[in-house]
User: What shape does this take?
Amino acid sequence: MTGPASSFRTYWLNSCIGALIFGAVLPCFLVFLNTMNSPKFAQFFPGGLAPVQLFIYGIAIAGPGLVIIALFLYRFFKAACALQPDRTPQQLLLDGMMTGASTGILNFPAWFAAMLFEWSDTSALLKFLLLFVVPGATYGAWIAWQAYRFHHPEEGLLPRYTLGTLLLAVFGWGILLAIYAPATAAVTPP
Assistant: This one.
């Protein structure tokens, strides 16, 4: 099938896939790396958990909320592109980042990740918020780009980042990776 309905499904499906990768798979991987040796992780998963199982749980728990958010954001940005055709892709990407970061916290099923945090740690709230804000900004930009592509099918699959938007994405994920880096045991010389 070709035509507007077909292209809507194609770009919306791309939006959902990007939202699942950036909003569920990557954050689940970070939570797994950060909490796999914690007592809470052992309490919830006594037999252990393989990374593949965690990804499946992450998509099953966070996926439905992300698909709903992706549909909402895609329709919002598609309408914004139609109403303001003179907006540049970079403006739309920045709007997508801000909107995605603010709607990321609405993925209520993903709040189950909070069960694995050690809330006695003073940085737990920061970790929890960044788990939604940075992936939310990333999938928000991705979804905004897919909505832009609906009106400009000549554009490629990957967004055209400016140096500023690329630095925002790299800096945000760098902070998230640094905060979620697994603790390593100190090595003492023999």
